[in-house]
UniProtKB/TrEMBL annotation:
Pfam families (alphabetical): BPD_transp_1 (PF00528)
Transmembrane segments: 66-91, 103-123, 135-156, 194-221, 241-264
Superkingdom of origin: Bacteria
Protein name stated in the entry: ABC transporter permease
UniProt cross-references to PANTHER family, sorted A to Z: ABC TRANSPORTER PERMEASE PROTEIN, OLIGOPEPTIDE TRANSPORT SYSTEM PERMEASE PROTEIN APPC
Subcellular location: Cell membrane
Similarity comment: Belongs to the binding-protein-dependent transport system permease family.
Native organism: Salinicola endophyticus
């Protein structure tokens, strides 16, 4: 499911009936046309059009590209920050550990959405809406990434604290291995299974966070549509009967997040099975 949805989004320039960014292909007289199975639909717009006359299928495919880019980019930033700070806190310990973990505790006291709203509002007030619209994707990756790194940091720290007292780590130190080599070659690999499972859920959460921010008017502008901004743009016309502008992008968003979460669950089950003890019957004994 994820390969199908993400593949369709990545191939949007070839699969989309039109380019929603090309104003020459937009006709205002074709606005609010329903999908193909309803009356008054247009042949060239299988899922209907929005209030500006843009093809909704094309908007969904291009918008899914933006949402997926923000989701994966934000999780990558969370990984870089969380893993780096978690390794430092767990291996060094002492005051550095206390400082980093108290910082993480303070940030965890606020919800992700609240942190993202505050940061995006400050950026908009400081640099203006035009700046935010031009660099919207990168700013949302930064905002969502900075809001969720403590989860990775605490997970990595706990794993490092448990592993660094074991004999093989002490043996590596006695042999004169440098601290970066011990951390990267011995401690970091032990945290990868947990990070893989967390990342599956975090990608879906990052996509939903972008959709929530766009719905509140703090995400992607309508000129660069994401799935969240499409849902917002059609919400005002939901009561007037143009339900497809909101519900169809919403269904695409739900299926994408569901596929990511199912993939994360599959990773967790596979890792649990791999580390589970094998019975004599399973070995053929």
């Amino acid at each position: 499911m994820l390969l199908l949805l993400a593949g369709a989004a990545l191939m949007a320039p070839w699969l989309a009936p039109s380019d929603p960014y090309d104003l020459a292909q937009v006709e205002l007289r074709d606005s609010l046309r329903p999908p193909w199975w309803l009356a008054d639909s247009l042949p060239g717009h299988p899922l209907g059009t929005d209030v500006q006359g843009r093809d909704l299928l094309s908007l969904m495919l291009y918008g899914a590209r933006v949402s997926l880019a923000i989701g994966f980019g934000a999780v990558l930033l969370q990984l870089l920050l969380g893993v780096t700070l978690g390794l430092l806190a767990g291996y060094r310990g002492g005051r550095l550990d206390a400082l980093l973990m108290r910082w993480a505790d303070v940030q965890l006291a606020f919800s992700t959405l609240m942190m993202a709203i505050v940061i995006s509002a400050v950026v908009k007030a400081a640099f203006g809406g035009a700046f935010y619209g031009h660099y919207g994707i990168w700013l949302l990756i930064l905002i969502i990434g900075l809001s969720e790194w403590p989860l990775y940091a605490r997970t990595v720290r706990a794993s490092v604290m448990a592993e660094k007292r074991k004999e093989y780590i002490e043996a590596a130190r006695v042999l004169g291995f440098s601290a970066p080599r011990v951390v990267l070659r011995h401690l970091l690999p032990n945290t990868l299974p947990a990070l893989l499972v967390i990342s599956g859920a975090q990608i879906g959460q990052a996509i939903m966070a972008e959709a929530a921010l766009s719905f509140l008017g703090l995400g992607m502008p309508e000129t660069q549509p994401s799935l969240g901004s499409l849902i917002k743009s059609g919400f005002d016309y939901l009561q007037s009967g143009a339900w497809w502008i909101t519900l169809l992008p919403g269904a695409y968003l739900v299926l994408t997040v569901l596929a990511v979460n199912l993939l994360g669950d599959a990773w967790r089950e596979r890792l649990d099975t791999r580390h589970a003890p094998v019975s004599p019957t399973a070995k053929g004994g």
